[in-house]
Amino acid sequence: MPMTILPDELIQRFVSIVGDKNAVRDQADLAPHLVENRGLYKGASPLLLKPASTEEVAAIMKIASETGTAIVPQTGNTGLVGGQTPRSDASDVILSLERMSRVRDIDPVANVIVVDGGCILDTVHQAAEKVERMFPLSLGSQGSCRIGGNLATNAGGTAVLAYGNMRQLCLGLEVVLPTGEIWNGLRRLKKDNTGYDLRDLFIGSEGTLGIITGAVLKLFPKPKGHQVAFAGLNSPADALTLFDRASTLCGAALTGFELMPRIGIEFTAKHIPGVRDPLETPHPWYALIDISTSDKAETAQTMIETLLEQGFEAGIVQDAVIASSEAQRQALWHMRESMSDAQKPEGGSIKHDVSVPVSKIPDFMAEAEAGVLQAIPGARICAFGHLGDGNIHYNISQPVGADKAEFIARWREINHIVHGIVLSHGGSISAEHGIGQLKRDELADIRPGIEMELMRRIKTAFDPAGVMNPGKVVKI
Amino acid sequence: MPMTILPDELIQRFVSIVGDKNAVRDQADLAPHLVENRGLYKGASPLLLKPASTEEVAAIMKIASETGTAIVPQTGNTGLVGGQTPRSDASDVILSLERMSRVRDIDPVANVIVVDGGCILDTVHQAAEKVERMFPLSLGSQGSCRIGGNLATNAGGTAVLAYGNMRQLCLGLEVVLPTGEIWNGLRRLKKDNTGYDLRDLFIGSEGTLGIITGAVLKLFPKPKGHQVAFAGLNSPADALTLFDRASTLCGAALTGFELMPRIGIEFTAKHIPGVRDPLETPHPWYALIDISTSDKAETAQTMIETLLEQGFEAGIVQDAVIASSEAQRQALWHMRESMSDAQKPEGGSIKHDVSVPVSKIPDFMAEAEAGVLQAIPGARICAFGHLGDGNIHYNISQPVGADKAEFIARWREINHIVHGIVLSHGGSISAEHGIGQLKRDELADIRPGIEMELMRRIKTAFDPAGVMNPGKVVKI
């Protein structure tokens, strides 16, 4: 057992709410909940609680608030900024929503689904599929991430271009407040202008303002046509031109436009089973273009052919393939989605999740490459991502043969270089992963004082006792 | 001059910021700023200020905050809930953004436009048009309403179905806080997960948390195909079925689906010059269907023909016309947009701006009609609106020959009946117009105590001196 400042009598009060078998105190069982995926953060905790209902969550928060006990909400534990990891002094109790994983209701005519905060993203996909609808949020971790966490981090993923991020996909919330009160904001309305936008304040607040225990999400008609192309390009500038043409040609039918570098294709072909370079000769850059059409299947095919023809004629597409089956479409997306995993066998990777206005992508890429290579000659830049959203995962693999620990030790230094260039283009240091612990202090450094002050005022107004995921996002 | 509690020395301090010729004190000149469009509210004020810059707005708010002087921001004065009208004790200073009406920047590649808070909506439309782009917000008042007010009220309009309301159309804001500090949140990013969502908190706060002096708005590619149909239907239930088919068939290409009753067509044909019933025989209900396609013009035509064919075959469309020219498309929309004005010659009208989940529209319409006719036999219900968003303008014209004043005196009573039915279906008492003065107390009655408490905490955290449009939205 770790040393904890929490008295046993207090722990017993918490345990009695959920029952012994839903309270984890054994450190071996707790262990997977104390670290995040990349191993950047490791915390400690004497207790994990698994409430079965909103009322149990509320009862936990009431005691927490009365006794000043910090609560860390956790859903799929797939976050990438340490927002779900307890602090290291074993003073935080973890609250897991894994037992609250139901689909509460689904209405295909109104195009809504109502789910528990602990509902797994894939469960939502399957429930929508059963009624001939579609829920567009698509993430690598969709088999384990849960809706409460997706909302708490305003998750993005690969379908943001056409459908938006979680904030755009959510109509209503049920939230347990730090004080243990329950806010029932489970509205199913597309339009509702009745006072301050509490919903969007909770979305993206990373569990620091309350615990999202339920949500109303939007569903969409399933597209009838779907087509994917993979194109070899000479530069990010050509990719931007192609994106601009694709937007104009396809409008809302353009559901994905991803940029990848040559080295990313090499890494995936080398390390990910079944992946091979789809084109005959190498190209410096690649675009993955995804088109979904609602009227009929052929429109997607016509659109993608027209786009590639225009691209060839303009000299911006060097070579391309169009997927000829659903299996090929999935294979092309699999390559893109494996790009981060494919870096792992290549040693240490310093990561960034940044965005700039889409028109600034080429300048950003050139300046960041120059800055990084000046600092670490031989660094292998594997910058890929959602070009259509201006969101690049600017990942940097260590030079061949370099010492991994020494390379990773330069994380902050390299962040500083890349983020400086991002900010010079009016960009964001966290496009979709959030702030958590990882970027909390950096955010305070780069944002105007008044902005941080407003965030602190909100935090204090919602969580006067300071018990709701303290130490994340904003320092009080 | 009205009696005012503001000392002349204080008024002089305000005047000195903007200069004499930009400070209105003459009551004849002030008069149009003291009433709102429907004449429901009439306020009093000794002073209207027209700052020319964000810095001047900030200087005004600094003095206001120091001296506890209430400021009412006003843009196009087209709001419908009294949010822009000063209170009646002549203690509020009006701050007009009409001199801050510039387009600051436009970037067609990034699809963004940056404008002053006082920029007229039509100016944004024209600027977008010049660079082959489109800004989708479309309102009857677009020639006079201004972006700051559109944002402050989270304006909706006729294109919400495909493009969302102002919250979805805005990327960044510049806001002068009640304390006179300036928050520069003029980001141009589609993805930015860096802390609490201040932007969406200011949007829809109706000038009670700060003054929106600048905004970054999204632009879209201009659709290539555009087609409008007008269909005669038997019931709201058939309209809902048709809408469901249209959504499935057209997906994001379905840009408008408006419901209108027979009496609305009669009123417009009678009172609006140039409007005539487009169909040969009368039908109880009508749908206006608007389709915009990005790939080519013909797709819109094919889609609308297919939809109407399906509707005829299923027996849900009784008769229909497809516009054969841009002039006809505009004429059909003009009929829809004149529906509120066409009620005026028919005497008093009690209005509601409500929303319910779209699947509940038929039940809501039936129950509301029964409730209203029981209270006022002979009342003429002219309920029309954005069926696709679940948003109905449930307007009720007085019975023929009734006394207008007596009818209007029953506004609250009828609101109570209609809103009760709305709430029983999980709906909203203000879908797009906001709360202002008109619905402030009713909101507090119907919403859970904790929700109003959170709003009050936010208001107090942002505006500790209580000087920012006091008395609107939430009572402190």
UniProtKB/TrEMBL annotation, chains A, B:
PROSITE patterns found in the cross-reference section: FAD_PCMH
BP GO annotations: respiratory electron transport chain
Superkingdom of the organism of origin: Bacteria
One matching Pfam family: FAD-oxidase_C
GO molecular function, one term: FAD binding
Domain FAD-binding PCMH-type: 41-222
Swiss-Prot/TrEMBL cofactor(s): FAD
Record key words, sorted: FAD, Flavoprotein
PANTHER family (alphabetical): BLL6224 PROTEIN, D-2-HYDROXYGLUTARATE DEHYDROGENASE, MITOCHONDRIAL
UniProt similarity note: Belongs to the FAD-binding oxidoreductase/transferase type 4 family.
Protein name: Hydroxyacid dehydrogenase
